[in-house]
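Entry type: protein chain
Record version: 2
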Amino acid sequence: MFRLFKKKEKIKRELPPGTIRKEFHFEGNVQNIGFRFEVQSHAKPLGITGYAKNNDDGSVTAQLQGSLENIDKVILSLQNIDRIQIDSITEKEIPLDYYEKDFSIIY
C-alpha cells in the first residue's frame, strides 16, 4: 500500500538547565475574558511552553514549562490585569515534557 503521509516523528528536545514545569489551577473571573490568551501572550515571549484550558467548573488550568523566574513573571503579570480577578491559584510541580515546542490554547 502507498504511504501518502509520513508519520510525524517526535524528537526529544534538550532543555536548558533549571527548566521546570508547573501546573496552575486558577479560580475566579477567569473565563470569557481572554484569560487563556493572556497566559499565552505573556508566556510565549519568555520562551515558556505549555498550554491553558478552560474547565467545566469555570476555572482555568495552565501548564507552564520554563525557568522558575519566567514562570513567576507570567503569574505576576496575570495578577496585575484589571479585568481578571483571580480568587485563588493552586500550583504543583509536574514532570517535564521533552517533546513540547510551543504554548497552546486548548479548546
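Comment: Strands lie at 19-29, 49-54, 60-67, 85-93, 103-106.
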